[in-house]
Amino acid sequence: MYSMFGSTVAAISTPRGKGGIAVIRVSGEDALAICEKFISPKNGKPLSEIKANTAVLTNVYDENGDILDESVVTVFRAPRSYTGEDTVEISCHGGVLLTESILSRTFACGAVQAGPGEFTRRAFSAGKLSLSQAEAVIGMIDAETRAALSLSKTNLGGAVRRKTDAIYEKLKELISSVYAVID
């Protein structure tokens, strides 16, 4: 699959700190190949043979081949992922040291640090989200009231996009009419 970004990125997608579970997302053309270097599904298949949208129990290994964690890994394949790229989500036990250690393994194996909002930017660039939907994702994350959350959920569902698309279509009709009169 061709990636418009060229690099495979990784980041912790859950709040940093202690918790039962942390999620590390790896997205890009080489996501599966990078993760296969340090993740081994317990069913014996390599990650590249795991069906899309499937979660598998795995062992995650450090650079010495010792088990870092037993994690659940979910494989999403392009173009049917949030970013539109191949994506691997590692759901590991939460904790600062463990999570940072697994993220460091992704970097050692070829991924680069994702910037703030990088996954949503990639989703927007791949046409998976409109600009208003990308903004709604940020709104949902930042929402501090039920009203703000509700508004962001509505926008994420495409309400703003549908209204602007309707306006755009009317403008196209109007412009076409103006050109017809000029001709």
Helix and strand arrangement:
Elements: E1 9-12, E2 21-27, H1 31-36, E3 39-41, E4 54-61, E5 67-76, E6 87-93, H2 96-108, E7 112-113, H3 118-125, H4 131-142, H5 146-156, H6 159-182
Parallel strand pairs: 1-7
Antiparallel strand pairs: 1-2, 2-6, 3-4, 4-5, 5-6
Helix pairs in contact: 3-4, 4-5
Q: Would you kindly provide a brief summary of this structure?
A:
The model has no long low-confidence stretch (mean pLDDT 89).
Could you characterize the architecture of this molecule?
By secondary structure, the chain is α+β, with helices and mostly antiparallel strands. It has helices at 31-36, 96-108, 118-125, 131-142, 146-156, 159-182; strands at residues 9-12, 21-27, 39-41, 54-61, 67-76, 87-93, 112-113. Helix content is 40%, strand content 22%. A hairpin with an 8-residue loop joins strand 1 (9-12) and strand 2 (21-27). The model has no long low-confidence stretch (mean pLDDT 89).
For the largest beta-sheet, the strand count, sense and barrel status come to:
7 strands, mixed
How many β-strand runs? 7
Roughly how many Å is the radius of gyration?
20 Å
The backbone outline, from C-alpha atoms, is elongated
Order of helices and strands: EEHEEEEHEHHHH
Q: Helical content, roughly?
A: 40-55%
